[in-house]
Amino acid sequence: MARAVIVDVLLGLAVAVVLISAAGVLLMRDAYQKAHYVMPVSVVAPVLIALAIGVQSGWTISTGQSWLVVAVMVIASPFLAHATVRAIWIREHGGASRDLARAGRDGERQDGGRL
Length: 115
Fold this sequence. Notes:
With about 120 residues, this protein is mainly alpha-helical. It is built from 4 helices and no strands.
């Protein structure tokens, strides 16, 4: 009985995280702000679901597999978010404009080389 309640609470929290994140994505103005609301879906919700699996079935092979998936998601999500935001920035500002802005007016790099 207590296990079922704990599992339901954990799954309910995971659903709440996803719904709040979806509302944040809908309400934010630009892609940079929206990216902040995608992270809880890819980090917090899977941890809550893995906890629910652990409470429901104890320490079994399925629990270990779920924690392996969660570990991969938690490790990969920040890198994917950074790459996505960087791709958006490059698309908006152009790929070479950042390097040219850093280089100075005459096109010389900071380390003395030419662009």
